[in-house]
Specification:
With 482 residues, this protein is α/β, with parallel strands linked by helices. It has 4 domains: 100 residues, NAD(P)-binding Rossmann-like Domain (Rossmann fold, 3-Layer(aba) Sandwich); 66 residues; 114 residues, Cobalt-precorrin-4 Transmethylase, domain 1, CATH 3.40.1010.10; 118 residues, Methyltransferase, Cobalt-precorrin-4 Transmethylase, Domain 2, CATH 3.30.950.10. It contains 17 helices and 19 strands. The strands form 5 sheets. Strands 3-2-1-4-5 form a 5-stranded parallel sheet, sandwiched between helices. Helix 5 runs antiparallel to helix 6, helix 5 runs antiparallel to helix 7 and helix 5 packs parallel to helix 8.
Length: 482
């Protein structure tokens, strides 16, 4: 983050704008709307600035800029088409330790003016640090269509009742729960329907009927974080990630996804790696229960889908026994996400009519699977967590009937910028993976659908041709750039 976004209270604050043309008009308008006392320095001014002058909304110094013009100002904006003048304003303001903005010249600024979505008292500011004002305006336009004006009225009503709610509810957590109920419930719907007096009456009734315990019952959100790309999260997952008081997350959840959790939520790492558990599974189950019993909204964030090799069922069994409310939010499982990003369809009319998911976790040093079921024709086999046991898996599948030339691929950290696809055969894949120095998490795909990777791969973390570490074998393509 190159700059700290802040909101300045400028009411009755003297502000100087150098320039009186069309560029200055927009800055002057923003300052006036914020309540600043605006003085314009310019040899001449445009018609819109003149109209504001006639309305006594600003003062005009009909002169060229001099550093002495800054003597009474607490903030300065240079908005001329003369680079020398703009630089002079910037230099003079910096010498006097005044915050200064120079339009379209970020190097001369100590602050930038964002694009604004105004739903007062809700204000949303979008900035690019001067890198691309056009992009900021495009994002503003998109947000304008997504955020109804009624949100401003809703926030205004909330402000009216803030002190009453604080008096009625003793704890921060109970007040947070109360307001989330308000903003997601009947009060908000009444405001959106234009029935603001009814909304106020409903809110008064809620306050009168409220007891702390009503809003202190905890809940657990078991949320699938998907395979790694934050764009693959569901809307519901994002909403609950922003509601949680505490989050328990493991190693398979990408840092970029953890960063989307509400910033003031407590974060507890319960990572797992092979047989190494930072927090053993029974303790995770107990932690979910105890935190919910404290009245907290607990987010259990799991890579992929919580009900596919995620032990999600185990984690909610105790919640059911203790009557703790919970939600299970599915995520895109690694098989679907990684295969799609690698250009490997798991089923295909000409290749596979079924797909089998299995886990390749080692148990007592070996992989114990129903090998006969895995080696049937016309199917795709997807092995989760199979990196450590890869050599054993490939050997057993060959021993139970598959040809050693059967196509197979290992996908490293699929859907992320670290994605790599190592496409080979059952016979050659272990050697290829060892040479590539692959890092977990990985996903193994076995079946003739793997041959489609060369043709259908579309996702490239590096911006060039999709990365493919395929071996140069008869009937298989290669990527000469690797």
């Amino acid at each position: 983050m190159d700059a700290l976004p802040i909101f300045l209270k400028l009411r009755n604050t003297p502000a100087l704008v150098v320039g009186g043309g069309s560029v200055a008009e927009r800055k002057i308008d923003l300052l006036i709307r914020a309540g600043a006392r605006v003085t314009v320095v310019a040899p001449e001014i445009g018609s819109k600035v003149k109209a504001l002058l006639d309305q006594q909304k600003l003062q005009w110094i009909e002169d060229r800029f001099e550093p002495t013009h800054l003597s009474q100002a607490l903030i300065a904006i240079a908005a001329t088409d003369n680079e020398d003048v703009n630089r002079a304003v910037s230099d003079a303001a910096r010498q006097q330790n005044l915050p200064v903005n120079v339009v379209d010249q970020p190097d001369l600024c100590t602050f930038t003016v964002p694009s604004i979505v105004d739903r007062s008292p809700v204000i949303i500011a979008i900035g690019t640090g001067g890198a691309s004002p056009v992009l900021a305006r495009m994002l503003k336009a998109r947000l304008e269509t997504l955020i109804p004006a009624a949100y401003g009225r809703l926030a205004g009503i909330a402000r009216e009742f803030r002190d009453q709610v604080k008096a009625a509810l003793g704890s921060v957590d109970s007040r947070r729960g109360f307001w989330e109920t308000v903003f997601q419930g009947q009060v908000a719907e009444l405001v959106f329907a234009g029935k603001e007096n009814q909304a106020r009456a409903e809110l008064r009734a809620m306050i009168q009927a409220t007891e702390d315990a009503k809003f202190e019952k905890g809940e657990v959100y078991l949320v699938g974080a998907g395979p790694g790309d934050p764009d693959l999260l569901t809307f519901r997952a994002l909403r609950l990630m922003q509601r949680a008081d505490v989050v328990l997350y493991d190693r398979l959840v990408a840092p970029a996804i953890v960063d989307l959790v509400r910033r003031d939520a407590d974060r507890i790492f319960v990572g797992k790696e092979k047989s190494k558990h930072v927090v053993p599974q029974p303790e995770i189950n107990e932690l979910l229960l105890s935190l919910a019993q404290e009245g907290k909204r607990v987010l259990r964030l799991k890579g992929g889908d919580p009900f596919i090799f995620g032990r999600g069922g185990e984690e909610i069994e105790d919640l059911v026994r203790h009557n703790i409310p919970f939600q299970v939010i599915p995520g895109i499982t690694a098989a679907a996400g990684c295969a799609s990003y690698a250009g490997i369809p798991l089923t295909h009319r000409d290749h596979a009519q079924s797909c089998l998911f299995v886990t390749g976790h080692l148990k007592d040093g070996s992989v114990d699977l129903n090998w006969d079921a895995l080696c049937q024709p016309g199917q795709t086999v997807v092995v989760y967590m199979g990196l450590t046991g890869l050599e054993s898996i490939c050997r057993e599948m060959i021993r139970h009937g598959l040809e050693n030339t059967t196509p197979a691929a290992l996908i490293q950290q699929g859907t992320t910028l670290n994605q790599r696809v190592i496409a080979a055969t059952l016979g050659s894949l272990p050697e290829a993976v060892a040479a590539a120095k692959v890092r977990a998490p990985t996903l193994l795909i076995v079946g003739s659908v793997v041959t489609l990777h060369d043709k259908l791969a579309w996702f490239d973390p590096d911006g060039g041709p999709p990365e493919n570490l395929a071996l140069n074998e008869p009937g298989r393509g290669t990527n000469d750039g690797l």
